[in-house]
Amino acid sequence: MQRDLLRESQSRLDRERLRPDLQRRDCPVLLSQRLVLRAPHEDDIDAIAHLANNEKIATMVSRMPHPYTKTDAANFVERTKEGAIGNCVYAITRADDGEFLGCCGIENMPDDESVAEIGYWLGEPHWGKGYTTEAIQVLIDMIFRTRNEVDHVDARCRVVNEPSRRVLHKCGFQFRGPGMIASLAVGGSVAVEWYRLERRTWMSLKSWGGQR
Ligand SMILES: CC(C)(COP(=O)(O)OP(=O)(O)OC[C@H]1O[C@@H](n2cnc3c(N)ncnc32)[C@H](O)[C@@H]1OP(=O)(O)O)[C@@H](O)C(=O)NCCC(=O)NCCS
């Protein structure tokens, strides 16, 4: 019996290695009014390398190297396919023309399945158009709708990161406390604010919209 289970598990792993898309069965393509969120792929490498090579982005996220090269972008795409980065990583693209705008995703939180932590960045030419708020709202909807075990979504942003704090407020997150996290590009620890969106708050916000 145990041998059968082991064999089945091994064959599943083999299938997933041959078909990396199978690992993303919990990461459906997401659509919003102006955006398509889908898995990053090789065609995105040039755009990722171009947009991510920006100190203003690297110093606001925890693990992005700076300078950021085409090799970094190729590694990133490869590792997302292997499931080595995060739980679900999405390319944020414009629905109209397919242009790559940035990335968002769910971090791996192996110890506690009741929490999903999200991260995001957008290329500077696309800032200030509401794209990230739109992307994070569909990402959150997907998390709460498809993962019953998740009770709250967390996010951390640097104390100095006004635009990111604003995105979190617009998505219904509430401040929970201060903290410190390591930043690769800064080369040390930075002060952050910890935000949380509880499932019950999300449900209330969704039903509030429907009552208008
Ligand atoms: C944070 C980031 C993702 C926001 O992307 P975006 O698509 O421009 O965000 P949105 O347009 O949805 O919302 C931005 C909000 O911040 C506001 N904002 C922008 N600059 C601001 C500033 N200096 N002070 C206060 N608010 C500011 C905008 O006015 C907007 O709010 P509004 O809709 O109420 O006017 C983008 O700036 C980015 O990638 N920054 C670098 C990486 C990063 O910070 N990632 C998040 C790590 S936690």
Automatic annotation (TrEMBL):
Gene source species: Martelella endophytica
Alphabetically ordered keywords of this record: Transferase
N-acetyltransferase domain location: 35-208
Pfam families xrefs: Acetyltransf_3
Presence of the UniProt keyword Transferase in the record: yes
Name of the protein described by the UniProt record: GCN5 family acetyltransferase
Keyword hit for Transferase: yes
Molecular function as annotated in GO: acyltransferase activity, transferring groups other than amino-acyl groups
